[in-house]
């Protein structure tokens, strides 16, 4: 988040929209049905199924509220907001070479909400994301960790 705004790519925005729609149109109904069935088991004070269903309902409603707030404050990263093509910007995919480990990586820089290391998406607020932003192809950036300093060479910026 930057200045209260939630930075998302168009894909990230669509995923949040889809998740919200699923929770509202499908999941709410499923949980409501679980509560209805659990009520039929009798005494609610000792009804574990009812308690579990109500807890699930609370989690679903909290997630819906969270997504609605995020979507309300979204700023979509657009192609024309990504600089002149010579420097790394949010939304870019960057091929880097970890000089310390001799390892190549391809990373996409996204807003915090979209970050997912399993998909090679890193946050613009992460140490590496911050170091890469506004850097140029061929440039070496440095990321300080608690243990040492890592160096990454920007091999290519992909738009």
From TrEMBL:
It holds the Pfam family GreA_GreB_N. One of its GO terms (molecular function) is translation elongation factor activity. The keyword Metal-binding does not apply. Keywords: Coiled coil, DNA-binding, Elongation factor, Protein biosynthesis, Transcription, Transcription regulation. SUPFAM superfamilies: FKBP-like, GreA transcript cleavage protein, N-terminal domain. Residues 7-76 form the Transcription elongation factor GreA/GreB N-terminal domain. GO terms for biological process: DNA-templated transcription elongation; regulation of DNA-templated transcription elongation. The keyword DNA-binding applies. Residues 86-157 form the Transcription elongation factor GreA/GreB C-terminal domain. Residues 50-84 form a coiled coil. Gene3D superfamilies: Transcription elongation factor, GreA/GreB, C-terminal domain, Transcription elongation factor, GreA/GreB, N-terminal domain. It comes from the Bacteria. Belongs to the GreA/GreB family. Necessary for efficient RNA polymerase transcription elongation past template-encoded arresting sites. The arresting sites in DNA have the property of trapping a certain fraction of elongating RNA polymerases that pass through, resulting in locked ternary complexes. Cleavage of the nascent transcript by cleavage factors such as GreA or GreB allows the resumption of elongation from the new 3'terminus. GreA releases sequences of 2 to 3 nucleotides. This is Transcription elongation factor GreA. It comes from Helcococcus kunzii ATCC 51366. The gene is greA.
């Amino acid at each position: 988040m930057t200045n209260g705004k939630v930075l998302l790519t168009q894909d990230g925005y669509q995923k949040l929209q889809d998740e919200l729609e699923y929770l509202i149109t499908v999941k709410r109904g499923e949980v409501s049905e679980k509560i209805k069935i659990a009520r039929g088991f009798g005494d609610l004070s000792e009804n574990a199924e009812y308690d579990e269903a109500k807890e699930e309902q609370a989690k679903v409603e909290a997630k819906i509220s969270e997504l609605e707030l995020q979507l309300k404050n979204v700023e979509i990263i657009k192609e024309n907001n990504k600089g002149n093509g010579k420097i790394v910007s949010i939304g870019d995919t960057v091929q880097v070479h970890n000089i310390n480990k001799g390892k190549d990586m391809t990373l996409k820089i996204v807003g915090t909400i979209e970050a997912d290391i399993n998909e090679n998406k890193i946050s613009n607020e992460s140490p590496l994301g911050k170091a890469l932003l506004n850097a140029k192809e061929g440039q070496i950036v440095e990321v300080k960790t608690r243990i040492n300093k890592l160096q990454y060479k920007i091999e290519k910026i992909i738009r």
